[in-house]
């Protein structure tokens, strides 16, 4: 395109070119992977953290302010609480108000579809279609189980956009508004800054131009710092740092633990790391190696970092694949437009069918025992598992009066120790229940605390089903 054309004319010419040009095989398959991502993400809502995020969004819309103290529990009511993901909570509640829980499912599907499309785009340098599809399949196997209706998805989208800004040389000024949204949506925004710093360091070791990366870093930092212009103020910057200082508390959370490699996704991640090492041996690059090593190390020590690490290694793997094979992503077939339109229509149809089912999947929760407790007016303190506390918050909002939930980062350490003492069913479990003044215990029947209390004459079983036991303290 001639550079002496006026800017408006260049934009019009580019738009016309995009509309008249045949879609490539990469674009055609991109529609398929986007549809697959939507189907994965639009599953019935069941994540326990989501239940509290939605309840908090409702509370924010009702009161017009972000809560700064715990409104949900009897045991920690009034304790300081930083709602780091307030923006996502508001988005959930707003979408629910407009279209119900089905609309929230659609939002979840769109976020996962965005992450999948970003992953497909990061593989763009692998022009050979079959290896690119194989790498995409590996990405899905590793990450699909970790994608849920949580603010984490917004963090993954933001991180992926930062990567695309670097890989495809996008205008970095867009990272300023992205940084503000990221800082007020999820505490992972330091990862974007770390990624760009590592890229700059690697580029200097490779003695290549790093001006675009430095500009991207500057605009992202500006956006994150502007995150203080919001209801949380400077807490959006303090929260991630303060969270990392509570490693002992977080060690009890599955997603903060190291992978155990006993599941298919974790085993596939090992395969991805081995392939990454081979790719770097084939095409050495400090720029690629520093980033891959740092994020792989983070993933090896904590499960929650695995999806981010997978995004990071995708361009490394794509560069190594290159142009193996004859079927290329860049080829523009004559049926390209028809294929894109047909597949997009099919994806929409499948997506519509996908969200027709019941929007909530509460099979993992003790619905009948909680209904019994509700019929009796919820008398006293019901001690139960953390994720059941999230359901109580979802149902009752600020009137939940629950014992504990999965917001480990906001509870006092002594309350977390009490929760763990009950769950472990050790020597302190019964004395802890006495100290809490517990009136009832609702727990999964397979867990040892149930056997301990059933053997205690001070407790009796009030309701037993296939999975749950509701125990009451005997009078006197």
Describe how the helices and strands are arranged.
Layout: H1 7-20, H2 25-41, H3 48-63, H4 86-122, H5 129-143, H6 152-167, H7 175-183, H8 189-205, H9 211-226, H10 235-244, H11 247-250, H12 264-282, H13 286-301, H14 306-321, H15 336-354, H16 367-375, E1 382-384, H17 386-396, H18 413-424, H19 429-436, E2 440-444, H20 448-454, E3 459-464, E4 468-473
Parallel strand pairs: 1-2
Antiparallel strand pairs: 2-4, 3-4
Structure explained in plain terms:
The protein is mainly alpha-helical. Helices cover 61% and strands 4% of the residues. The protein has two domains: 23-350, no CATH class; 367-473. The protein has a four-stranded mixed beta sheet. A hairpin with a 3-residue loop joins strand 3 (459-464) and strand 4 (468-473). Helix 3 crosses helix 4 (86-122), helix 5 packs across helix 12 (264-282) and helix 13 packs antiparallel against helix 14. The termini are far apart. The relative contact order is 0.13.
């Amino acid at each position: 395109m001639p550079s002496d054309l006026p800017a408006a004319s260049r934009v019009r010419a580019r738009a016309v070119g995009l509309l008249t040009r045949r879609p490539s095989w990469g674009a055609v398959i991109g529609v398929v992977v986007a549809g697959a991502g939507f189907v994965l993400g639009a599953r019935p809502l069941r994540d326990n953290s989501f239940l509290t995020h939605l309840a908090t969004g409702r509370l924010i819309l009702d009161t017009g302010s972000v809560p700064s103290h715990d409104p949900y529990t009897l045991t920690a009511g009034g304790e300081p609480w930083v709602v780091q993901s307030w923006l996502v909570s508001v988005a959930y509640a707003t979408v629910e108000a407009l279209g119900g829980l089905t609309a929230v499912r659609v939002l979840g599907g769109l976020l996962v579809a965005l992450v999948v499309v970003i992953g497909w785009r990061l593989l763009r340098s692998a022009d050979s279609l079959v290896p690119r599809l194989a790498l995409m399949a590996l990405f899905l196997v590793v990450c699909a189980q970790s994608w849920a209706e949580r603010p984490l998805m917004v963090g993954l989208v933001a991180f992926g956009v930062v990567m695309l800004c670097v890989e495809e040389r996008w205008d970095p000024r867009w990272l300023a508004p992205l940084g503000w949204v990221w800082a007020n949506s999820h505490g992972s925004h330091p990862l974007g800054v770390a990624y760009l710093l590592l890229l700059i360091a690697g580029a200097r070791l490779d003695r290549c131009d790093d001006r675009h990366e430095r500009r991207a870093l500057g605009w992202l930092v500006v956006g994150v710092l502007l995150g203080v212009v919001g209801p949380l103020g400077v807490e959006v910057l303090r929260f991630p740092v303060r969270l990392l200082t509570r490693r002992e508390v977080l060690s009890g959370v599955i997603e903060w633990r190291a992978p155990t490699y006993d599941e298919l996704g974790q085993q596939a991640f090992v395969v991805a790391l081995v392939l990454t090492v081979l790719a770097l041996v084939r095409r050495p690059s400090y720029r690629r190696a520093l980033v891959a090593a740092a994020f792989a190390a983070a993933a090896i020590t904590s499960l929650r970092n695995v999806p981010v690490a997978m995004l990071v290694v995708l361009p490394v793997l794509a560069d190594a694949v290159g142009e193996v094979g004859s079927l290329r992503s860049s080829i523009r077939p004559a049926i390209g437009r028809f294929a894109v339109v047909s597949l997009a229509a099919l994806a929409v149809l499948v997506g519509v069918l996908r969200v027709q089912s019941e929007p909530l999947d509460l099979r993992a929760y003790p619905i009948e025992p909680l209904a019994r407790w509700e019929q009796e007016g919820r008398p006293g303190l019901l001690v139960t598992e953390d994720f059941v506390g999230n359901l109580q918050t979802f149902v009752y909002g600020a009137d939940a009066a629950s014992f504990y939930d999965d917001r480990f980062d906001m509870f006092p350490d002594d309350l977390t120790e009490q929760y763990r003492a009950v769950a472990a069913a050790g020597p302190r479990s019964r004395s802890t229940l006495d100290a809490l003044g517990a009136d009832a215990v609702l727990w999964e029947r397979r867990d040892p605390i149930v056997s301990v209390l059933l053997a205690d004459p001070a407790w009796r079983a009030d309701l037993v089903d296939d999975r749950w036991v509701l125990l009451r303290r005997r009078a006197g």
